[in-house]
Design brief:
The complex is a heterodimer of chains A (115) and B (117). Chain A has 115 residues and is an all-beta fold. Chain A contains no helices and eleven strands. In chain A, 35% of the residues are buried. In chain B, 34% of the residues are buried. The termini of chain B are far apart. Chain B is mainly beta and 117 residues long. The chains are: A mainly beta (115), B mainly beta (117).
Chain lengths: 115, 117
């Protein structure tokens, strides 16, 4: 199936741990994104990569570090997890062209719970 | 302060009825405005994308309108179905300069629609 996939779907961890969320898209898209959706369902963009190059880096703690080994993957690594990091994290991608001007396709989300 | 405001926050309608969701924004200038549908526990799915020069765009039973002068958009759902129950999110894209460089996405907080039999 062509899609944006994320692993894991659920992640429960202790405060202070380091964790990673993986994202892969097989749609041939050039641009990938990470979003955070908080408990109030408010979506906020965190990062955007175009062809492995960072093009958006919103104000997020530097404990969050995106890594793009190739244009089909954009992983999110989080150091020293805090309670406030609990949220659903969505990966998305968009076709070649004008980046965010194009339609974005979202993954199913990863629900992160920090205890 | 969020620059994209959606109303109502939540809405309950009977199956088969029509409804209209509102989105007011102050983001300027903008590249395009989008409506997304997000089912519970799923990622958002794009319904419509409109540039500033477009007034209306349809996608099946969904019709979005845009008034760039008043900075208002609406999403009209016709003959609602139970599967329309979801959150509907309005997103405004602001381009700082041309190209795939600097741009901002501003999300509304969404309208939670419940369609009941």
């Amino acid at each position: 199936d062509t899609a944006v996939s994320q692993t894991p779907k659920y992640l429960v961890t202790q405060m202070g741990n380091d964790k990673s969320i993986k994202c892969e898209q097989n749609l041939g898209h050039d641009t990938m994104y990470w979003y955070k959706q908080d408990s109030k369902k408010f979506l906020k963009i965190m990062f955007s990569y175009n062809n492995k190059e960072l093009i958006i880096n919103e104000t997020v703690p530097n404990r969050f570090s995106p890594k793009s080994p190739d244009k089909a993957h954009l992983n999110l690594h989080i150091n020293s997890l805090e309670l406030g990091d609990s949220a659903v994290y969505f990966c998305a991608s968009s076709p070649p062209g004008q980046g965010v001007d194009n339609e974005q396709f979202f993954g199913p989300g990863t629900r992160l719970t920090v205890l | 302060k969020n620059q994209v405001e959606q109303s109502p926050q939540s809405l309950i309608i009977l199956e088969g009825k029509n409804c209209t969701l509102q989105c007011n924004y102050t983001v300027s200038p903008f590249s395009n405005l989008r409506w997304y549908k997000q089912d519970t526990g799923r990622g958002p799915v794009s319904l419509t994308i409109m540039t500033f020069s477009e007034n209306t765009k349809s996608n099946g039973r969904y019709t979005a309108t845009l008034d760039a002068d008043t900075k208002q958009s609406s999403l009209h759902i016709t003959a609602s179905q139970l599967s329309d129950s979801a959150s509907y999110i309005c997103v405004v894209i602001k381009v700082s300069y041309s190209g795939a460089g600097s741009y901002q996405l501003t999300f509304g907080k969404g309208t939670k629609l419940s369609v009941i039999p």
